[in-house]
Amino acid sequence: MSYLTEGLVEALDLILSFDREVMEISFVSLKVATISTTISSLAGVLLGVLIAAHNFWGKKAVLTTFNTLMALPTVVVGLLCYSFLSRKGPLGSLGLLYTQTAMIIGQFILTTPIITSLSISALSSLDPRVSREALSLGATPYQTALTLLTEGRFALASAIMAGFGRVFAEVGISMMLGGNIKGYTRNITTSIALETSKGEFALGLALGMILLSVAFGLNILFHYLQAQKD
């Protein structure tokens, strides 16, 4: 047990002293997750509005597909992107493999179905009279969509938080597409895996604490938004 206690004390010291390596690794995680979630939110919420506001042939199949993709394994996304971005792949000439851009692409693919599916669920649960009243008052389709987004803003924010939490804690995509390069693509999850394999528990524990702190903060915010929605 002593090594755990010593590792915990050392981990707290690394965090409280704002250790440069810990800060750099945390910054990479926040940067990549924020950019990928922002792009996914734009695409996911737009798709959610279009799908929720229209009835079309095959809508149930589309909904089932998005719901299934919510459980997409990160290693599958990583493998799929790797096959396109590797030197022998169709996009290999772009030289994106083992870059933060490749990590963002993979995380975008991972979280877009999550935000889309949750956005559809949030907008579908709104009172249908909202859109009908907006249209009856002469609102354009664009203005009607804005009204729906305003009414469902808390639920949509929860969907975005769920997407951010998913990519912030993922490891498969970051490892396969980022390559865990120190000072560039090494983030919290890949660093924890590396340091644990080396027996360096202190740094791994410090990063684990930061990861849990972010997850805890997101959970509090998620419940707050849920309360506002209800």
Please give a structural write-up.
With 230 residues, the protein is mostly helical. Helices cover 78% and strands 0% of the residues. The protein contains eleven helices and no strands. The longest helix is centred in the N-terminal third of the chain and has 34 residues.
Order of helices and strands: HHHHHHHHHHH
Number of strands: 0
By oligomeric state, this entry counts as single chain
What sort of overall outline do the alpha carbons produce when their principal axes are compared?
globular
**Uncertain regions spanning at least 5 consecutive residues:** none
Estimate the mean pLDDT confidence: 88
Structural class comes to: mainly alpha
Strand content: under 5%
Q: How many strands, what sense, and barrel or not for the largest sheet?
A: none
**Tally of individual helices:** 11
* Share of helix, binned: over 70%
Radius of gyration: 21 Å
How far apart are the first and last residues' alpha carbons, in Å? Answer: 45 Å
